[in-house]
């Protein structure tokens, strides 16, 4: 029978056990092994049944067991210790409160309990959060990264407030049909059974946000709070009675539905999210955020809502835009066009029109923010990443390579600038070690270097804290690797059996599963979402060769594969099926396994048990990638195309680089062939031989040395703690500083300045450039266009500034090596000084010296950039004046003068 109504009966714990609820509601248990062990000891069998979920465990324990525990002095002592530990963790001073800022990032004002200059609070918006398997609100890397960001911020004491949506069905659960086709399930998540608390007004009514929709409809949402250590995470939930049936569905699932659905989700996340933050700060007495960080473009509307707030306070749109930009950080996560949200302009216009949201704001201005105003841009589309860049003074990619790729990708928004000057920096992602490092690895670390130091090493980072790992004996490392591999084998067999049952097999058919995987065989892992650029099936390119590797008589390999395809991605599902069918083949099924339903719970078992973590994306489409980092922290070696983080930190000691045909003029098919070939060859000739090269005690010395080097040298780099510290120092603190500087008067001044710039710029020009006698060892420059190293050229420049004055701009000489087509590379820019001249009417004169400090082909040019103390940099407004063809003629020289 189906119940007509459902409600949750909350357990009433005996008084002495009440603190268990408190421990269960703070998700710190998910990365604190001692608290998890405490829950487990409440009822080991119930813990397993509850899927290691404390809230479910407590709902399920018998009254007798509770009574027993309530008088168990040893248990109560452990409980008190755990509660005290959490209290200290939440209220103590941590890195953020102690450490100093790098020069220049400080400022007036500042955090109430932090170092002066640091933001009092930062709001961090993301469409998904992967905190723990028991709160399944993520689809993949983006969400897990957001979860790791929150946890690392908590460990460091960074006053972050997370903001997201609560999806009633999360993403989806994956299983397989008999013939290997992906099946999707959408279990209902009842927030009352999740580690969430509803945010309430002082009178007990639920706090809500409401958005106006076209046609007089309204979208209401409740605000759920998850506590992630010290960091609150606010999740908006549209499944409330006040909503009509359509509006209730807005937060139904992650990345589902058509574009109107997505737009509503993103409006709720961005606009509703800011309103939720305001409600939270009011109700919790929390300082208001000085910085808003949007993790990918989906939450970009948050900037519009903050403009609306300021506009309601009397600030004009342009000034409000400047104030909002100063305190906004935008992180872009993908160079794949399909990963960027683009909406129909009309759809956006309808939702921000007169009867929609933000009625005080001109919809034309809104549309302008998302316009693809560059060559090749689609005039009919509204691009969330483009809006993100226009609404944030600071933007970044997520690895050094991805920063470069993003600068090229968005260079059209800064016409006239070389890609390397596009103001998009990068902060390489990291992973939260306490979440991803297996308890066995932590225990070995604690034995060797002490528990306190291990925790510090994992959360704060710093390579000196990791050095002690170098002293761990080979035998201990190898023993650990073996243990982890064995555990994985057990886990894989269990999951595989469950999957085959699900696919309709009876137990009698499944005896072979007992022989799946071998704890002594080189184990390779490959798990990730299945967009085409990640090439799930590259390993199948030459099936005979792969089979030979799997079945090699002396040096076999075994492979564990997992991955979900997006429900609407038929191509991705075909790839999954191809892989599953191969894995079903009785000849290889003991050596290659596909596990359905990749998620955090599986990932936490999978990374530690693999000897090698494989990644073969189409370079450079993997913005960063983080699974390889998690594997490395457990002592796995990486085998990967040099993309994302691996491009940056690859060293022969940490694993192997699969040669890529990126950049070579080949078609995709040929490229796959080349790269698959390289992969097989590496496995056959380098990876397997090293793994099986044993000394008399059975230890592969060179392999273990690589594991050790991976832990000591790579380990400290890949930490989320390192990443969050970089965000604080390089982005949050400067953004808070800029935000404070933009008082309403300053914001008006900056807006007026930019308006003046835009109006005047068409008449700004470099009119004349001449080089005079050098002050170098000789006369410096000879008539044949050559110069001597060490010489200095005197530059004289005449420019027209139209309605601007020399205070509004900087005139620079930009010089460096030139390539075959006269492009300056590795350019350095040096400002020229205004020179008072007799003929001011003819333009402004500038002077300066150009040092010939490099041999070889060398060139320079002169340019004019906006300059204002409130700009983050000269490229910010996207305006530049360069010499034209006629400048050179007037000067009797080529426009950018080349000296060879
Ligand atoms: C880390 C992680 C990812 C992201 O891995 P990539 O290497 O970035 O593809 C995806 N899903 C889960 C469950 C993860 O733990």
UniProtKB/TrEMBL annotation:
Residues 768-787 are annotated as: Disordered. The modification N6-(pyridoxal phosphate)lysine is found at residue 630. Its EC number is 2.4.1.1. It catalyses: [(1->4)-alpha-D-glucosyl](n) + phosphate = [(1->4)-alpha-D-glucosyl](n-1) + alpha-D-glucose 1-phosphate. Its cofactor is pyridoxal 5'-phosphate. GO terms for molecular function: glycogen phosphorylase activity; pyridoxal phosphate binding. Residues 13-135 form the DUF3417 domain. Keywords: Allosteric enzyme, Carbohydrate metabolism, Glycosyltransferase, Pyridoxal phosphate, Transferase. NCBIfam families: more_P_ylases (TIGR02094). Phosphorylase is an important allosteric enzyme in carbohydrate metabolism. Enzymes from different sources differ in their regulatory mechanisms and in their natural substrates. However, all known phosphorylases share catalytic and structural properties. Belongs to the glycogen phosphorylase family. This is glycogen phosphorylase. It comes from Streptomyces piniterrae.
């Amino acid at each position: 029978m189906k119940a007509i109504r459902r409600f949750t009966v909350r357990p009433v714990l005996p008084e002495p056990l009440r603190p268990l609820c408190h421990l269960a509601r703070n998700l710190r248990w998910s990365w604190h092994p001692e608290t998890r062990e405490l829950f487990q000891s409440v009822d080991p069998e119930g813990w397993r049944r509850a899927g290691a979920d404390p809230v479910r465990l407590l709902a399920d324990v018998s009254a007798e067991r509770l009574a027993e525990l309530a008088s168990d002095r040893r248990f109560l002592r452990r409980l008190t210790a755990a509660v005290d530990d959490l209290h200290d963790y939440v209220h103590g001073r941590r890195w953020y409160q102690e450490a100093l800022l790098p020069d220049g990032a400080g400022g007036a004002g500042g955090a109430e309990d932090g170092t002066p200059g640091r933001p009092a609070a930062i709001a961090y918006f993301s469409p998904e959060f992967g905190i723990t398997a028991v709160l399944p609100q993520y689809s993949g890397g983006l969400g897990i990264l957001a979860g790791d960001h929150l946890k690392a911020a908590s460990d460091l004491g960074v006053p972050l407030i997370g903001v997201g949506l609560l999806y009633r069905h999360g993403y989806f659960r994956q299983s397989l049909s008999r013939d290997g086709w992906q099946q999707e399930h959408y279990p209902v998540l009842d927030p009352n059974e999740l580690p969430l608390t509803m945010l309430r007004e002082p009178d007990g009514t639920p706090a809500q946000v409401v958005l106006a929709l076209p046609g007089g409809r309204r979208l209401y949402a409740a605000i759920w709070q998850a506590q992630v250590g010290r960091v609150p995470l606010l999740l908006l939930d549209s499944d409330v009675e006040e909503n009509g049936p359509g509006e209730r569905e807005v937060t139904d699932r992650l990345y589902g539905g058509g574009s109107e659905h997505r737009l509503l989700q993103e409006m709720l996340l961005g606009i509703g999210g800011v309103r939720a933050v305001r409600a939270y700060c009011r109700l919790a007495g929390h300082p208001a955020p000085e910085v808003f960080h949007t993790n990918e473009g989906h939450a970009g509307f948050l900037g519009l809502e903050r403009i609306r707030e300021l506009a309601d306070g009397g600030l004009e749109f342009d000034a409000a835009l400047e104030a909002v930009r100063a305190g906004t950080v935008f992180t872009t996560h993908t160079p794949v066009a399909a990963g960027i949200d683009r909406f129909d302009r009309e759809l956006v216009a309808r939702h921000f029109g007169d009867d929609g949201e933000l009625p005080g704001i001109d919809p034309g201005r809104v549309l302008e923010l998302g316009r693809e105003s560059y060559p090749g841009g689609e005039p009919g589309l509204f691009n969330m990443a483009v809006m993100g860049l226009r609404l944030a003074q600071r933007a970044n990619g997520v690895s050094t390579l991805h920063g470069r790729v993003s600068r090229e990708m968005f260079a059209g928004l800064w016409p006239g600038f070389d890609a390397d000057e596009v103001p998009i920096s990068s902060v390489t992602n990291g992973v939260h070690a306490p979440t991803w490092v297996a308890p066995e690895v932590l225990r070995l670390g604690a034995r060797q270097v002490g528990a306190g130091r291990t925790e510090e090493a994992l959360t704060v980072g710093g390579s000196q804290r990791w050095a002690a790992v170098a002293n761990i004996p080979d035998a201990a490392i190898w023993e650990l690797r073996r243990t982890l591999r064995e555990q994985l084998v057990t886990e894989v067999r269990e999951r595989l059996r469950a999957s085959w049952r699900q696919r309709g097999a009876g137990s009698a058919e499944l005896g072979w599963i007992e022989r799946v995987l071998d704890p002594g065989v080189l184990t390779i892992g490959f798990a990730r979402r299945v967009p085409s650029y990640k090439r799930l099936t590259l390993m199948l390119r030459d099936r005979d060769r792969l089979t030979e590797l799997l079945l090699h008589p002396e040096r076999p390999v075994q492979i564990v594969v997992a991955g979900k395809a997006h429900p609407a991605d038929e191509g991705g599902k075909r790839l999954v099926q191809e892989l599953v069918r191969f894995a079903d083949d009785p000849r290889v099924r003991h050596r290659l396994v596909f596990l359905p339903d990749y998620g955090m719970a599986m990932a936490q078992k999978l990374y530690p048990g693999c000897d090698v973590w494989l990644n073969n994306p189409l370079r450079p489409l993997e913005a960063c990638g983080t699974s390889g980092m998690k594997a490395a922290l457990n002592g796995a070696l990486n085998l990967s195309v040099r993309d994302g983080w691996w491009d940056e930190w690859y060293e022969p000691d940490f694993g192997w680089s699969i040669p890529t045909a990126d950049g070579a003029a080949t078609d995709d098919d040929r490229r796959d062939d080349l790269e698959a070939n390289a992969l097989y060859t590496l496995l056959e000739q380098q990876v397997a031989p090293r793994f099986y090269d044993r000394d008399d005690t059975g230890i592969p010395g060179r392999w273990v040395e690589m594991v050790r080097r991976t832990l000591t040298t790579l380990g400290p780099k890949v930490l989320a703690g390192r990443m969050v510290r970089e965000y604080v120092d390089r982005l949050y603190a400067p953004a808070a500083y800029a935000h404070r500087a933009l008082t309403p008067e300053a914001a008006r001044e900056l807006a007026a300045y930019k308006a003046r710039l835009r109006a005047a710029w068409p008449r700004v020009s470099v009119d004349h450039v001449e080089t005079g006698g050098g002050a170098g060892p000789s006369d410096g420059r000879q008539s044949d266009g050559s110069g001597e190293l060490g010489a200095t050229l005197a530059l004289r420049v005449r420019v027209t500034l139209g309605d601007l004055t020399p205070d509004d701009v900087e005139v620079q000489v930009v010089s460096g090596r030139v390539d075959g087509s006269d492009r300056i590379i590795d350019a350095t820019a040096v400002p020229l000084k205004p020179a008072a001249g007799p003929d001011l009417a003819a333009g402004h004169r500038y002077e300066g010296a150009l040092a010939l400090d490099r041999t070889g082909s060398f060139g320079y040019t002169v340019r004019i950039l906006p300059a204002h103390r409130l700009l983050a940099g000269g490229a910010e407004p996207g305006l530049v004046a360069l010499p034209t063809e006629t400048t050179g003629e007037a000067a009797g020289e080529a426009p950018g003068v080349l000296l060879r």
